[in-house]
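Internal ticket - ligand job 717, guanosine-5'-triphosphate:
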Amino acid sequence: MKSYPTKKIRNVVLVGSAKSGKTTLSEAMLYEGKVIDRRGTVEDKNTVSDNTEFEQSNQKSVFATPLYAEFLENKFNIIDAPGSDDFVGGAVEAFKVCETGILVINAQQGVEVGTEIFARHAAHYHLPLIGAINQLDSEKANWEGTLETLKEAFGHKPILVQFPVNPGPGFDGFVDVLKMKYYHFKDDNGTREDLAIPAELMDEAEQRRQELIEKAAEFDDTLMETFFDKGELTEDEIRKGLGIGIRSGEVLPIFCLSAKKDIGVKRLMEFTINTASSPEGQKAATIDGGEVECKMDAPCSIFIYKTAVEQHLGEVSYFKVMSGVLKEGVDLVNPENGTTERLSALYAVAGAKKEKVTEINAGDLGCVMKLKSGKTDVTLAEPGVDAIAHIVFPEPKYRCAVKPLDKNDEAKLGDALNKIAAQDPTVIVEYSKELRQTILSGQGEQHINLVKWRLNNEFKLQVELYAPRIPYRETITKIATAQYRHKKQSGGAGQFGEVHMLVCPYIEGQPATNKFKIDGKDTELKIKNQQSFDLEWGGKLEFFNCVVGGAIDEGFMPAILKGINDKMTEGPLTGSYARDIRVYVYDGKMHPVDSKEIAFILAARNAFKQAFRDAGPKIMEPIYDVDIITPAEFVGPCMSDLNGRRGMIINQDMENNFTVLHAKVPLAELYRYSTVLSSLTGGAATFTMKFAEYQPVPGDVQTKLLAEYAAQEKEEE
Ligand SMILES: Nc1nc2c(ncn2[C@@H]2O[C@H](COP(=O)(O)OP(=O)(O)OP(=O)(O)O)[C@@H](O)[C@H]2O)c(=O)[nH]1
Ligand SMILES: [Mg+2]
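stdout (structure tokens):
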């Protein structure tokens, strides 16, 4: 393959809701680009894009797959992104390296929540979009209905470049009002006749063309003047105007498609090449606030947007050349850690097929194998070029615990999970000391099942996934005191330490007092010194040394603090971390010989435990902000489901034609929520979740948690 200059490259990502037909479209694009001479189908599991076993057995795209066609003397790079929410990571990776998105809309459904979500991600990344209404050949294709939903979702932005003739099973062509032609298809293989518009369609064609011209003129003063002067614009002028509108996100031009019958695919590709931007001159932000301009005449830098382990190849790093010309055999440096990598063999990529090339120009996509540090979201560059800003991945919304079936595999599992997470940054792995579990988080149950599948198949590890523990916190609501004497005199050297302490709730913004009632007497404690700690797990501990008259040596204070800290990491109620507490140590006793650190550590631990138990202890649980985006018809079922999860609906609003429910829901009630929501709404709704705060659990939940803990708690030495 020849190497294409930057301005002869288009990087296009196919996005849209699940099952809208992106993979089928990518197959037809490859066919039109003469990369393949027979189109595979998703059903036959033989598309170029869905080439992994996991994708084929699930009949859906799971990874963003780069493909290319050489078309109209350009290199037309296509990334077929997954439509399922669970695999959104792949789409977000592709957004980072593409200049244009083709938003595929299913004519049977109109705009779906998935369409909406991808349009929102695209807006976030300033990715210009071209709209394509697909499946116009299907029995349930609803052209008018789809246009309605487009208007509801995108307001004034959609503008028709084409309208279909005979939508439904007889779909065989469309009128293109940019070209003012009727494209008729004679077979299911894209054999096209370019005809004059039939008389009966002329009125509609002229009206649509007028709308298109007015839209195109909106974004450029000279075009507007030409339009006023002549009442017309040429094809080039319309394209120019549309191009400006598309790039600024003000216009969503609409095309007609049957990806399955290869109708409209070639026209869509032609328009994209003629109207969409090439990467030339595009500026990518760097982590240090600078920019890397995409041009060939510059030091070389590449950005790895995807990594995968592939059969017979090992780890493959997929990249975009962000600047300069990448030449085979070059050494590049990771600007973030200084590691040098030699890129010994370069490839152009069409799914599983890789074609060896010797150089790749700025703006183009390619891949390289077996890099040491070539993970997703990494820049490699000639010295002096900064790292490209990292991809912002969506927050996880599915969380579970994982362990190996064979205990001896623990270290192996840790390694495997770390490798998977480096390749797919939407997989988050964390060993929680607090929960004593390895917590695996991702975008949904299917996403986590993919991780499990990879562990089984790639790493030969059998694992169990199970409900994760909840990181509860404990705090107190009242003042209480306790005294504890630790004394051990059997055999050898003795141990002696006695600590008297008072605990009271720490409340943000409320100053500490030293006046308390102790043993029924008003007491004013003398604070000798105080320390305040921001706890690693959130909240505060304030420690007040109020021991007078040498009852306890200063030297034992650190031991007492240690005893308290120990117990804070293992709260007396459920073994969870304690937070937001003030501790006053105001008296105690020593023994001239037997008092030693360990005695005070144990005395403080036990005194703290006792005081804590008498201080109206409360279990607090993590509460998440949950936003559910759903078609209006599912608002009722979503709300009643939330009620059953102790969720509190804060408010609801409309976003385009979807309802957004804003709720606060305890994490304990969110296990497998993505799966539940999906089955509750037939996959039409989605949600996001983000940690908000800790709140006390209701009384009945506390009783249940206490009983559970009591059953497993052992007496402390
Ligand atoms: N009738 C008809 N069916 C289509 C068309 N395009 C795709 N399909 C069918 O729709 C289903 C989904 O197609 P895919 O190409 O896998 O859709 P996708 O958007 O890639 O789906 P995900 O990867 O899951 O997001 C398959 O059964 C296709 O055969 C079309 O133009 N007409
Ligand atoms: Mg697909």
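Auto-summary: Residues 18-24, 41-43, 60-61, 82-84, 134-135, 137-138, 258-260 surround guanosine-5'-triphosphate (ligand 1) (CB under 6 Å). The chain is about 25% helix and 35% strand.
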